[in-house]
Amino acid sequence: MGKLNVVMLRYLSKEHFRVLTAVEMGMKNHEIVPASLIASIASLKHGGCNKILRELGKHRLLAYERTKTVEGYRLTNAGYDYLALKTLSSRQVISSVGNQMGVGKESDIYIVANEDEQQFAMKLHRLGRTSFRSLKNKRDYHKHRHKMSWLYLSRLAAMKEFAYMKALHDRKFPVPKPVDYNRHAVIMELLDGYPLCQVRQMEDPASVYSELMDLIVKLANHGLIHGDFNEFNLILDNDDHVTMIDFPQMISTSHPNAEWYFDRDVNCIKEFFKKRFNYESELFPEFKDIRRESSLDIEIAASGYTKEMQEDDELLHPLRSDEDDHTAEVSESEEFAESNLKFFRSNQEDNVELIHEEDSESRTSEDATYNNEEADTTETSENLQKLSLTESSSALDKVEGQPVCCKSSEDGVSYVTLFPEHERMLEGTSKNKATQ
């Protein structure tokens, strides 16, 4: 499988990240962000900003688009990846990116490592590979909205998956240990096992079958239904113990269609064991036998529990096509952010904004409109906290212009180091670069 191309990450200066962040902020209420607005948000001169925009476009971190009424830039998946990786590396969560482990309809999985060479799994959500109609049927991040950005939806998917994973892991459910997340990237424990769909032989199918059914019941007793409980989202280790993955589509047992989803999860396991291992059992759980022990769905604002979704019957009826409306205004939901983030990360930073606070004070009155828009967006999400440019620039100055550093581990996985602290630039090189 391929690699995530992070070679250019070490060559980007603080101005490049300021521009990328400015485009990201502008896309919250613009489908195409004009260059003048980007320069205003990034607090850069138009000439220097245009040069950086061309460089980022050359490396496909930004995409230039032009219509009859407006021309400007939008953030690409690669540019969004770079923003997430820069934040995670600045937190010292990861320092290198390895090979791709797997790819799905809505995510990519990579092996990553920190400075201590401890390996993790990084999941990058890629919502938008399927149609918008299919997305609305399986996910409810958009709530009542009809126009959403794929990047925004991917970010919401990562936010919800991390919330579910942490809540379930704290209650001793067999799920990967969550490490951190930023934007659409989720860092989690690297599991030692194989997807159940790849297992051809099993010593005791009855034991594994019983464990899976007990897991479905345990989830329901805590107020949750997986919603996609099948052989592709279950990892089996060498001891035939199962670990559950992929949580963005979880729903509450209070959802109007909860029984249908519960029965579908049960039938998926029954059919798989019947076809693969020729094992059938007359014992299987039913939704009416569920005895709720806790309200985990309420604590983490489970999908489908909100009042809007109870009134929305779109999961049962055909939906009109919205494929032409998938990129537009994407305002942040304060209620959604509070219900998810207060539960597991009240004091931890979620995002990195590379806009210096002192620069905001020196802006002209002509740019005050954009500053107010930026401030309003920041207040609506508690997971957006400012990071001083003094800290980020010091790290960027150390790595700017360094050669790419690649290494291979004992298990054959090759890594590309993002920001190695032990390498330093020669003073002569720095002076020559400053002169140029």
Automatic annotation (TrEMBL):
Keyword Membrane: no
Basic and acidic residues compositional bias, start-end: 355-366
Span list, region Disordered: 355-411
UniProt key word Phosphoprotein: yes
Cellular component terms per the entry's GO annotation: cytoplasm
Main subcellular location: cytoplasm
InterPro entries, sorted: Kinase-like_dom_sf, Rio2, RIO2_wHTH_N, RIO_dom, RIO_kinase, RIO_kinase_CS, WH-like_DNA-bd_sf, WH_DNA-bd_sf
Transmembrane feature ranges: none
EC number, as in UniProt: 2.7.11.1
Subcellular location: Cytoplasm
Biased composition (Polar residues): 380-395
A biological-process GO annotation: ribosome biogenesis
Keywords: ATP-binding, Cytoplasm, Kinase, Magnesium, Metal-binding, Nucleotide-binding, Phosphoprotein, Ribosome biogenesis, Serine/threonine-protein kinase, Transferase
One MF term in the entry's GO annotations: metal ion binding
Catalytic activity: L-threonyl-[protein] + ATP = O-phospho-L-threonyl-[protein] + ADP + H(+); L-seryl-[protein] + ATP = O-phospho-L-seryl-[protein] + ADP + H(+)
Pfam family, one: Rio2_N
Top-level lineage group: Eukaryota
Obligatory cofactor(s): Mg(2+)
SUPFAM superfamilies: Protein kinase-like (PK-like) (SSF56112), Winged helix' DNA-binding domain (SSF46785)
Subunit organization: Associated with late 40S pre-ribosomal particles. Interacts with PLK1 (via its N-terminus).
Family as reported in the entry's similarity comment: Belongs to the protein kinase superfamily. RIO-type Ser/Thr kinase family.
Name this polypeptide is given: Serine/threonine-protein kinase RIO2
Organism lineage string: Eukaryota, Metazoa, Chordata, Craniata, Vertebrata
